Model the fold of this input.
Amino acid sequence: MSSLIVLGCMWGDEAKAKIVDFLGASADAVVRFQGGANAGHTIVLEGKKYVFHSVPSGIIYPRAKCVIGAGTVIDPFGLQEEIQDLISQGVDFSGRLFIDERAGLVLPLHKKLDSSSEKALGKNKIGTTGKGIGPAYSDLTARRNLRVGDLAHPDWLKLRLQGLYEAHGEVIGARALNAELKLLAAVWKFLGPYVAQTDVLVRQWYLQGEYILFEGAQGTLLDLGFGTYPFVTSSHTIAGGASTGTGFPPRWLDKTLGVFKAYGTRVGEGPFPTELFDATAERIRKTGNEYGATTGRPRRIGWFDAVAGKYTASLNGVNGIAVTLLDVLSGIPELKICTGYWASGTKLSGYPSHPLDLEAVEPEYLTLAGWEADLGKARSLGKLPKNAREYLDAIQDLLEVPIEIVSVGSDRSQTIVVK
Ligand code: IMO
Ligand code: MG
Done:
């Protein structure tokens, strides 16, 4: 009987799925608790690439049950396609996927609203993934959105859908409304068999002694409340979200593993104090294939930020960390880690909550010597060059949390277990 939360501790894309996949071998259930198809999780297994948006990456393990929890938002059409694509890649879903009937729906209207809201913001736009996430969560908190379970009740669904359009000042004719309802009825036929009250199941599994792994999406600095607001996503990505997003009692959450990339990346707008615009950034982007799995956008690149890392490790109560993509830094002569923020001649003691304050900080850096060797074949810390070990030590010392896993490549086997 145990549970583990694996979550991203920066702005997403920390290779969480790689770590979830690595740990998934022993998990009885893998549970998504927030976000939606804005996530893009890639797993490479024996040279074969699998991309996930809403389905937990644990589905790769035939014995793991997978849950899409109540705190998520689901584009039913996108999810059907995702499941069908995975089935065609040989993944077996029967009796293994459980979608919570309380999860919110992302409808075509939400995608339209996402894009018009970004347009209206102009140069102040958030740089969303365009997947309708913000509008879907906004409609949930405004208590006018539809949820997965509504798909089972056609008359109620019709009223609620009409009400939703009206609430947004959108005129929808009877014909268009009926056409949308028809599509929703068809998608329900496909998804319905997977739908359940997943909170009951997960609590039951836990009490039966099973090992439950919660898979975070996005990252802590994209958390709606504690991230770099307003340049955040619309869900609670922090460890607490694992409980509110699944109905799993906080008292039962045993451990939190924070995933950090060996350098910084960010997609979308918003402050990024350690951002680089030089040839090193270009090199890292290329070597690390730093392009969004969901949108294909080139990711912004920067040095590892231990000030942000300390904030997110503390916010999540992280008691172990995984450092990923360390191999990407090979061949860079000198590496930097941000150890402090300065503003108006003073060193800050915490992480600023206002975007303008974060924009204005001057990072202080620790400079470390790089290494030449390719790390892809290392399977123990001892096989890493001394400078790579010193780089990891610096991260561990600055964050004051032990490193438990180091990833040196995208394949499952390219993983070093420290402890
Ligand atoms: P994974 O799970 C990186 C970012 C977007 C934008 C902001 C808001 O793959 O790490 P949204 O569409 O959520 O309203 O966009 O959040 N964002 C991500 N960045 N990885 C993700 O997911 C992200 N999901 C959203 O780029 O800045
Ligand atoms: Mg991603």
Notes: Residues 105-191 form a domain with the Adenylosuccinate Synthetase, subunit A; domain 2 fold (CATH 1.10.300.10). The CA atoms of residues 255 and 400 lie 16 Å apart.
